[in-house]
Amino acid sequence: MELSNLKKWVKPAVDALPPKRTIIIALILLIAFVIVMIPLFNMLIYPLKYEENIFNSAIQTKADPFLIMAIIRAETKFQPNQQSHVGAQGLMQIMPDTVDFIIRNGKFSPSLRDYVYDPVTNIQMGSWYIAYLTERYHGNKVAVMAAYNAGHGRVDKWLREGVWDGTRQNVMQIPEKYGETRHYVTRVSYYYEKYKQLYQDEFEEYKANLKNQQD
Q: Mind telling me which residue stretches traverse the membrane in this protein (predicted)?
């Protein structure tokens, strides 16, 4: 094809393109749309149920609300009527022995044993236990995650004997026999960051509204 003929075909196509300013505006709108949609998309992937119960229990017990959310997501994906093959119960998959420990040390009514599958009761108990573990491990959330899965007696021993240093980076120091706990810590840590990123503003707003109601 001769150059003159090529120009004849190309020029109308170029002229049909939108002006440069229009392209820039369209790109800006596209970027803004993506920025808005990514959090909404993440909220679909990481939904939050029993929000008010979690927020209230976190405030009452001083437990980290995002750790509560992350553990629920890992344990049951917010499905309350679950029982594991080893007997863990309810939304936060609390073992019967742990229920007894929580009732005894948290000064809960013994009658709550009959309501462990109730989401509100389960969240209250699980939140108290997370707060207890957080104090026990001086705020080390990674150790809390490991203890929630493997039991605080085992985690105490690993830390005391130098088997594991209590960090996420060295989670593979956890004995191979407890591979489930290694995986659990990694998974809950990931969920923790996601839920904190998505719902931190909402929690702060809830606390502010609660404070205003009390003033």
A: 23-45
pLDDT in tens, 73-106: 999 999 999 999 999 999 999 999 999 999 999 9
Local structure of 85: helix, strand or coil: coil
Task: Find the helix packing angle between 65-76 and 119-136, rounded to 10°.
Answer: 120
Q: Residue 188 is part of a domain; what is its CATH number?
A: 1.10.530.10
Residue length, the chain?
215
What domain range includes position 39? 3-45
Contact 188, 70 (CB under 8 A): yes
What phi and psi, each to the nearest 5 degrees, are found at residue 77? Answer: 55, 40
What residues form DSSP beta bridges with 89?
Answer: 83, 94
Question: What pTM value is reported for the model?
Answer: 0.81
